[in-house]
Design a protein that fits this description.
Elements (H helix, E strand, L loop, with lengths): L1 E4 L10 H15 L3 E5 L4 H12 L3 E5 L1 E4 L5 E7 L4 E5 L7 E5 L16 E4 L30 E5 L9 H10 L3 E4 L1 H5 L20 E5 L5 H4 L7 E6 L12 E4 L2 H23 L1
Parallel strand pairs: 1-8, 2-7, 3-7, 9-10, 9-11, 11-12, 12-13
Antiparallel strand pairs: 4-5, 5-6
Length: about 280
């Protein structure tokens, strides 16, 4: 409904002290009951510093949020290695603060009609000076992140050799998606940690996710269970992943995936011939 804007040359590049000062000034002016911050590289720096200044609580990496009638924000996140879901409230201090992972919530549909109000926020320039000065910022090469992929193929412990990932890479490519992995695959160095799905990796919400040889530990499931369609391939019919999967294929991924690849290749070839 309202967007608060603080525009000053000192804020051109991110610097923790000036940005925290602006955040603090915004809170002093608006006095909100609750504040949500994106659990990004910037948000994870900014939120704890502001919470410390305000002497209030902060819950990191929330996966579920609920609001009680008395405005107590119930901040829910996995704890003890993901074995329980902790419900945390800050009843005696305001604002209540939490960082929230990307893709935990659905984005609202874009409205063609403009609404809301832009409010200018003035902060004393002396508060925008910090001990560190950013001289320039160099643009990073554009990357493809698994959070933005519509289709993901996830490699789990069931993959026996690093060379076998090429089979799953091809499956992802034929489906127009990306290859992702579980924590053991990232720790083994087989796949970049940026492609890890789960609480210690990335939270994803693709239209289709195919897990291959993934058991379905709660830490992994919490990072992908909001996907539109979940297909699980595992030879253990009692694997926890089947509890959240929409479609389950009980069998060896080394038999099932090549069969899927064969069908997808045939369809691709038929589509190419039809367009010639």
């Amino acid at each position: 409904d309202e967007v608060y804007v603080c525009d000053d040359p000192a804020l051109r590049h991110f610097s923790i002290e000036p940005y925290a000062a602006v955040f603090e000034a915004f809170i002093a002016q608006t006095r909100p009951a609750a504040i949500l911050v994106g659990a990004t590289a910037v948000g994870r720096q900014l939120a704890p510093r502001v919470a410390a200044r305000l002497k209030t609580g902060l819950t990191a990496d929330c996966t579920v949020l609920e609001m009680n009638e008395n405005t107590d924000l119930v901040q829910i996140r996995p704890a003890f290695g993901g074995n329980i879901m902790a419900e945390i409230v800050t009843p005696n201090h305001r604002p209540q603060m939490a960082t929230v992972r990307y893709k935990v919530m659905n984005a609202p549909e874009r409205s063609p009609h403009s609404s809301g109000q832009i409010v200018s926020l003035h902060v004393d320039p002396t508060r925008l000076k910090g001990g560190v000065q950013a001289l320039e910022a160099a643009p990073k090469p554009e990357e493809k992140y698994i959070e933005s992929a519509d289709v993901l193929v996830v490699a789990g412990r069931g993959v026996k050799k690093e060379e076998d990932l090429a089979m799953l890479e091809e499956l992802a490519s034929l489906l127009g998606g990306q290859l992702a992995c579980t924590r053991p695959m990232a720790e083994a160095g087989w796949i970049d940690a940026k492609r890890q799905v789960g609480l210690s990796g990335r939270t994803v919400r693709p239209k289709l996710i195919i897990t291959c040889g993934v058991s379905g530990a709660i830490q992994f499931v919490a990072g992908m269970d909001h996907a539109e369609t979940i297909v699980a391939i595992n030879r253990d019919e009692k694997a926890p992943i089947f509890r959240v999967a929409h479609y389950g294929l009980v069998g060896d991924l080394y038999e099932i995936v090549p069969h899927l690849l064969g069908q997808l290749r045939e369809r691709k070839e038929a589509a190419v011939c039809a367009n010639v």
